[in-house]
Amino acid sequence: MNVLRIAFFTAKRQLKNKSSIISVVFFTLLLILVLGNSLKLAYEPMSFDKQSICIYSNNQKNIDNFQNFIKDNGTYKGRIKVVEVKSREIGIDNVKKRINDAYMELENPKVIPSASVKNLYVYYSNDFDVSIIKNAIDSYKYSGNSNDKDRSDVVQNNPLNLQNKRPNSTGYYAVTMLLMIMLYCASYGVDIVIEDKNRNMIGRIKSLPISRTKLMIGKVIGSVSVIFSLATCIIIFSKFVYKVNWGSNIVNLIPIILLFSFFTVSLGAFMGSVIKDAVIISYIINLIVPFFTLISGGYIGNMFLSDSINNISFLSPSYAAKNIILKNAYGYGMYVSGFYIELIVASILLFLITIVLGRRKA
Amino acid sequence: MNITILEIKNLIKRYEEFLAVDNVNLSIKEGETFGLLGSNGAGKTTIINCIIGLNRIDSGNIFVFGKDIKKYELEIKKHIGIVTQNVSFYYDLSAYDNLMYFGGIYGLKGKYLRECVYDALNFSGLYEERKRFPNEFSGGMLRRLNIACGIVHHPKLIIMDEPTASIDPQSRSHILDGIEKLNKDGATIIYTSHYMEEIERLCTDIAILDHGRIIAHGNKDELKSMVSAEEKVKIKLSSINYTLIDKIKAIYGVQECTMDENIAHIISSKGSKNLGTIIDLIVNSGIEILDINIEKPTIESVFLTLTGRTLRN
Q1: Which among A17, A200, A207 has the least Cβ separation from residue B86?
Q2: Distance from CA of A23 to the nearest CA of B (A)
Q3: Contact across the interface for B77 and A209, Cβ inside 8 Å
């Protein structure tokens, strides 16, 4: 019961600083608006975008034919990238992960492998309609490369349920800027540790009939509630005013927003436990938050980042949270369970270290 | 009245090489207002910090309500109230919320919690200001809120570490009256202060600490008797006559006679009963006596006598 009381008053105290709270929400919404509009072109699918299709066939000749077809056609050359994959599963997975825009399978009759293409399967995302690939496949189909007896039935279109389009710039920056601002809220975690180390407060705190662990748990719950509430405000506002797609069911975001709030507070509390000086911690936060945001593709999308940066993206907690949220909203992304595990482990580890350090110093 | 509330046995506390508390033994009975006197760095706050668990004890034991503080720390703390040297509460909570917060942590709930909070607000004279935040308070109000936070749960033992430092006379008077009331209501109080007149007014039992050791312990009369082996008289004269000083020094029992401007400071052995002789001598010398002041020992003079007048770091 005491833990909940501590949580309640911690949240009340943090919400008392109205200017800070308002600026967090307002600044995030402003960033989403500014970045979303100014970088619109970089995120909207355009007709001149280079798109990619992965292809699999039980006959290498079919693949070569398709590649030659694209290469020889002035309309598609340089605008469609053809990638060969080893199996249907890999191809479909690539489309689901948005590594490729479509997957095409050219099947020969097994009994006569050298015959012309019998069936052509295409797997694509919902936004495939806008794709130049669609035109290329249609052209290829009618150019006589597949079974030409009944062309209309040959192509088996398999739409993959990817729910919606890719995020536009506003949708993308709504996610990344939300996560960036939540990371800055690590200062709440710092405060809950530093304030009780204060020379004036320590006597009062030590004289209370409550363990340091319970006190810390209460304060963490309070801070997490505040950050979660702020994030919820930003999500709801951006959903209804900016029309940001947060997924068909916004409730699905609760676990990741709660988890990331917990991570943020734990990170701050950890820094507060290890480093005594609040000013130094503030400098560190101001360094690591932009760094985490940058490598997670928060400022500019990962597709625009170099491979060397993309290779270390996984180090950023924002990258994990971003992928989980995008998965929820747009139905694509990598293995989110791995990202959940990464965030849960990191949060619990930071929290436990904070508790242990607090008890040692007690 | 005879129940021992706090017992300290052979307490030793070091800060690296510095011996802050050196084998202190104390026993405080229920209902006492116990004064802990000492210069800065004498060990008062260290002893208090050991009682509330802020400092680890190197050696010795502390028993509160008959229970070892090491074993029953959280249970004991429920019945201890601390009024810290520096004001300690949250500036981003109103006075009322601060008391609700700390009262709640002490295990108070619901209606009883609210009653206790209102009691503490009334006690500290802050009821009308309960919705205000501490950064709007004067120094005296902050001190009073600090006390309210320490007593909101009606503790049996209240430890007050210089609760009246740097405040106006009105607030001090209010606080001292309040402490007397708390004691009258049954609380046992440990009180430290640099204001000797406060100790003299409030405390029934006093311990004087120096360099981490208790150098004197007893009630006020016992302490005063320790240093009253001499009698001091100050006589203000109309003029100065240095041959008179030598004559006074020659009187039986006079140990010392010095002049400070036109005031003669005379120290005699206790019971020498020579004041009449001294007055006769002065009058016969043709010097007018303007004022006579017989100094009685105070707690301050006891303290200074026992700890010395040399400046401390």
Answers
A1: A200
A2: 18
A3: yes
Total of domains in chain A = 2
Average pLDDT over residues B47-53: 88
Contact criterion met (CB < 8 Å) for B85 and A201: no
Judging by beta carbons within 10 Å of its beta carbon (0-12, 13-18, 19+), is residue B133 exposed, middle or buried? middle
Residue B308 lies in a domain: no
Same domain, B80 and B200: yes
- pLDDT tens-digit map of A202-240: 888 888 999 888 999 999 999 999 999 999 999 999 999
Helix (H), strand (E), coil (C) string for A303-336: HHCCHHHHHCHHHCHHHHHHHHHHHHHHCCCCCH
Query: What tens digit of pLDDT does each residue of A246-265 get?
Result: 887 888 899 999 999 999 99
* pLDDT greater than 70 at residue A354: yes
Chain centroid offset of residue A265 CA: 20
A233 plus A109 within the same structural domain: no
pLDDT at A101 over 90: no
* Pair (A116, A215) in one structural domain: no
Q: Which helix (H) or strand (E) holds B34?
A: strand B33-38
Question: CATH number of the domain that B15 lies in?
Answer: 3.40.50.300
pLDDT at A41 (0 to 100): 66
What pLDDT score does A130 carry?
A: 47
Residue B75 CA from chain centroid, whole number: 27
- Is pLDDT at A153 greater than 50 in this prediction? no
C-alpha to C-alpha distance for B107 and A32, rounded to whole angstroms: 46
A79-96: average pLDDT: 83
Do the chains contact at B105 and A200, CB–CB below 8 Å?
A: no
Average pLDDT over residues B206-227: 85
Show the domain range for B129: 4-225
ipTM of the complex: 0.77
Q: Are residues B135 and B183 in the same domain?
A: yes
* Predicted local confidence at residue A351, as pLDDT: 93
Expressed as residue numbers, the domain containing A217 is 2-41+166-361
A46 in a domain, yes or no?
no
User: Same structural domain for residues B23 and B147?
Assistant: yes
- Confidence bin at B90 (pLDDT 50/70/90): very high
Question: Which amino acid belongs to residue B150?
Answer: G
Are both A298 and A357 inside the same structural domain?
A: yes
Using H for helix, E for strand and C for coil, what is the string for A164-179?
CCCCCHHHHHHHHHHH
The verdict on a CB contact (< 8 Å) between A6 and B105 is yes
With residue B223 as reference, give the H or E element that holds it. helix B220-227
Across A300-321, average pLDDT: 82
CA distance A106 to A66: 9
Question: A-contacting residues of B 165-224, CB under 8 Å?
Answer: none
CA–centroid distance for A38 within its chain: 21
B90 reaches A (C-beta below 8 A): yes
DSSP string, A162-229: --S----HHHHHHHHHHHHHHHHTHHHHHHHHHHHHSHHHHHHHHHSSS-HHHHHHHHHHHHHHHHHH
Cα dihedral: A27, A32, A38, A41 (round 10): 170
**CB atoms closer than 10 angstroms to residue A19:** 7
Which pTM does this prediction carry?
0.74
Burial class (CB in 10 A: 0-12, 13-18, 19+), A139: middle
In the three-class reduction of DSSP (H, G, I as helix; E, B as strand; rest coil), residue A63 is classed as helix
